[in-house]
Amino acid sequence: MFLKKIQQLNKTLLFRLTILYAGIFAVSSLLIMSVFYYRIHSVTMSTMDRELLEDAEDYARLLEEGGIESLKEKIAEESSAEDPGEEFIRVLTPGGVVVASTDTSDWGPLETGSALVRVGSGTASHVFDILTIPGQDFSARMISFTLEPALVLQRGETFEQAEDYLQIFRNWFLVLLIPVTALASLAGWFMAKRAILDMEEVTRTAREISAGSFHRRVRGKDRFSEIENLGDTFNSMLDRIEALLRSMREVNDNIAHDLRSPISRIRGAAEMCLVSGNDYKTMAASTIEECDRLIEMINTMLEITEIQSGITELEFREIDAAQIILDACELFRPLAESKKIILTEDIPGRIPFHGDRKKFQRVVSNLMDNAIKYTPHGGTVTVSAATDENTIGIAFEDTGPGISEADLPHIFERFYRCDRSRTNDGVGLGLSLARAFTEAMKGRISVTVNKGSGCRFVVTFPRELAQSGK
């Protein structure tokens, strides 16, 4: 059980962030310690080298002023005053013959080495070396210095004091590293916990929403900017989901109503036929008509879904948009005349257009049918087209009752009808289909309400995509 809890803890973001923070701090502390240690060591070496060089220069001046005997006396004084295990000094010839020296028994055999050769030959005025002392854990620093062409001074000093100081530094650092790392882990845990708490609230909100509380939202104030951005994005997603759910409920209600009406009429016709013994041909004709309405509605819904999802591939080719609009006007003219509606068109001689012919015809016919349907007897419907440097535009203007401000944002939604009583024919898919086909051909559709009465629908396409030539 305990191992299982440890494994579960290891999988949590809180645990991993805490370990990450502690690890980063520990590694950073080690790097800083290494830099400080290297710096202290470098300063110690530089200071020792400077002191050794200054001492060697003092001996050189003494030799110059008092001669070799004064130099020997000075070395003898040094031998009695200093600890022979900590430092030594000797004078010898370039060939290695010792002229004067302090006690060097603790230092083991001191080889002349290449330094003496370089100094004695005049290649260098002085050379520094590192010496290893037998039986000791520390080393020493030695300078070989040219006193005169026939004499070389060698002076050595141990690193014992420097090593002790560096060891104290290392020990204190290791002692302090453990509690400071623990403190850093605690601070890391607190910071990680603070971030995790915000994420847990998002998770908790998501669970409540999945349980049906679609009104819940994530608080986004007084938090880390990343959490605020996550909360804002999450809330925007929730607003969109809630709007979609509301739209789906409305669509379902509309579908239920539009499916129920023809089915009820079919059933009523069948009952009347059975009760009254009427001709079955009349019932069959009525049934076929209602079934056609249902099939049309289902096919339109499928077309909208397929074009919006990208399943349907458009057949782009060069067509004459002006001729298609004129053909649509002639097709709908009898319907307009039956309602005593004046149908006028203002179309240029030719509008080259690179698009899907069938989809473009459906857009034009749906907008034309919509304009005539909602224009009262004696009204006017005007269809016009124009082009400029950037766009091609087609406008459908009527003198109908117009659209209210409440209905205007929703008229392109599926099954949405401004006529809530549903006395007019249609199921509210014509404008949705027109917009879907228009957007599939890289165009856009908009509507404005005239000040007096009526509406103006405008379909536009970018010229560089629509035009294939004049």
Q: Report strand %.
A: 15-25%
What sort of overall outline do the alpha carbons produce when their principal axes are compared? rod-shaped
CATH class (first level) name of the largest domain: Alpha Beta
Q: How many individual domains?
A: 3
CATH topology of the largest domain: Beta-Lactamase
- Let me know the largest β-sheet: 5 strands, antiparallel
Question: What does the average pLDDT come to?
Answer: 77
Strand/helix succession? HHEEHEEEHHHEHEEHEEHEEH
**Fourth-tier CATH superfamily name of the largest domain:** PAS domain
Enumerate the spans where pLDDT stays under 50 for 5 or more consecutive residues.
466-470
Please, how many helices? 10
Provide the gyration radius in Å. Answer: 49 Å
- Order the strands across the largest sheet as they lie in space: 2-1-5-4-3
What is the level-2 CATH architecture name of the largest domain?
A: 2-Layer Sandwich
What is the element layout, followed by pairings?
Blueprint: H1 2-10, H2 13-81, E1 87-92, E2 98-101, H3 113-120, E3 126-132, E4 139-148, E5 151-158, H4 160-210, H5 225-276, H6 280-309, E6 316-320, H7 321-338, E7 342-346, E8 352-356, H8 357-373, E9 380-387, E10 391-398, H9 430-440, E11 444-449, E12 455-462, H10 463-466
Parallel strand pairs: 7-9
Antiparallel strand pairs: 1-2, 1-5, 3-4, 4-5, 6-8, 9-10, 10-12, 11-12
Helix pairs in contact: 2-4, 5-6, 6-9, 7-8, 8-9
